[in-house]
Amino acid sequence: MKLETPLVTIFKSNQETFNFLTDLNNFEQLMPDNKEKFEVDGDSFIFGLTGMPEIRLILKEKTPYDKIVLGAASSKLDFSLTIELNQVSENSTSAQLFFNGNFNPMMAMMVKKPLTNFINALSNNLQNI
Fold first, then answer.
1. What are phi and psi of 19, to 5 degrees?
2. Taking the domains of the chain in order of start, what are their residue ranges?
3. Which of 35, 56, 81, 119 could form a disulfide with 70 if both were Cys (CB 3.0 to 4.6 A apart)?
4. Does pTM surpass 0.90?
5. 2-126 — its CATH code?
6. Exposed / middle / buried, residue 20 (Cβ in 10 Å: 0-12, 13-18, 19+)
7. How many whole angstroms separate alpha carbon 1 and alpha carbon 81?
């Protein structure tokens, strides 16, 4: 299952945006309003949203100022969340989130709407950093 957000503009430099996103503590500011839990542990964080199981994401890859990849810590859920950054100007960056999950069709049908809402909330909140 592949999902992507619309391109958003962040009024910060590419480097500032990248540094913000590679500090996992900052993801708490990007979480949707229905966040019930958020804890950072090294290169990973765990979060819980109302009506969803808790999920741990691990920082898997970071390409300075261009790309950040987070992945599921559990082998039961095989997915990644990629954030691609592009410098628009000295003080402006565009960002887009891509979710790529390996789910069976039944699971994909059940999680598509909540996941779409989740990554769109992250993307929308990213505009306000």
1. -65, -40
2. 2-126
3. 81
4. yes
5. 3.30.530.20
6. middle
7. 12
